[in-house]
Write a structure and sequence with these properties.
- By secondary structure, this protein is α/β, with parallel strands linked by helices.
- It has one domain (about 5-345): 3-Layer(aba) Sandwich (Arginase, Chain A), CATH 3.40.800.10.
- The protein has 12 helices and 8 strands.
- It has helices spanning about 5-10, 55-60, 75-80, 85-110, 115-145, 160-170, 200-205, 225-230, 240-250, 255-265, 295-310, 330-345, and strands at about 35-40, 80, 150-155, 175-180, 210-220, 235-240, 270-275, 310-320.
- It has an 8-stranded parallel β-sheet with strand order 2-1-3-8-7-4-5-6, with helices on both faces.
- Helix 10 packs across helix 11.
- The protein is globular and about 65 Å long.
Length: about 350
Amino acid sequence: MTKSEKTLQFDPNSAGLKDSNIFGLPFNEEESDIILLPVPWEVTTSYGEGTSNGPSHILEASFQVDLYQPDFPDLWKRGIAMTDIPEDMLIRSMDLKRKASFIIDLHEDGVDVRADDKAQQILAEINIACEKMNQLVQQHAEKWLSQNKLVGLIGGDHSTPLGFLRALALRHENFGILHIDAHMDLRDSYEGFEYSHASIMFNALKISEITKLVSVGIRDFCEAEANVVSQENGRVIIFTEASLQRERFIGKTWHQQCENIISKLPQKVYISFDIDGLDPTLCPNTGTPVPGGLGFDQATYLLHCLKNSGKQIIGFDLVEVAPGNDDWNGNVGARLLFQLCGVMVG
């Protein structure tokens, strides 16, 4: 059956069938304009856990998302397909996370990890494995980008999109990142892990094609990260939650703030969305929740303002969605994912 035939036969008003692809859609990868790459990896997380199950959690919740959205009513017809979740990666991540916990415990006990031979061996193993994960993600992203697909990534922790960013850098001379997060993620090899979830933006800045990093909703960071911002001489712009709130208290609207945020970005934009950028009532099970954050409508309004600005959205990631004792995080994540797909299509 062709894509056209599937589109004619598919009822977008019916319940999603669980043997279908994400959002209950009938399209395979070749037929879909949008490809979603699941990366079930969370080796270096140091507080909450479970983000490696984020892709499967979002997939399960996606069947409850209604496909009609007034801003992009025909999005489903473009085709959205998530590739198979790599179970071998998930197993490897779980094994390495147990080893990483040994390193994290040493740090918390005040032990000099640099003087511990076992710790150094584990660190080397983890750093090598994380780089291999980055290379694999890059290869998969390049495969679909070369077929002119629109690509999004579903983590896993926030370390997972580095390979995707490298793949985009091979296709675009310059682009910016709209980074929505509670944290700056500008730590240099946090706890000795070169590819820590807390180091993703530090590592992203090593990619010269990334000419601007605009972070929104930030409310938890250290002095070293603030120093990185200063040293980048305008390449990194931070909109902390506190500064945004102060502006609102004196009468500035969210629309005005969104226009200001978007004005700092270049023409081509990648969206990196850590779900803990939202108010933690929307993502209570994420790895490192922080009070404050964006409401769901605030976040999607910012995304729609970006789409309507005429800038080109070249890719996105959605990370740090973790299942808890209920489906809430997956529910919010799936609905946010649908919005991200819609604004990327334009």
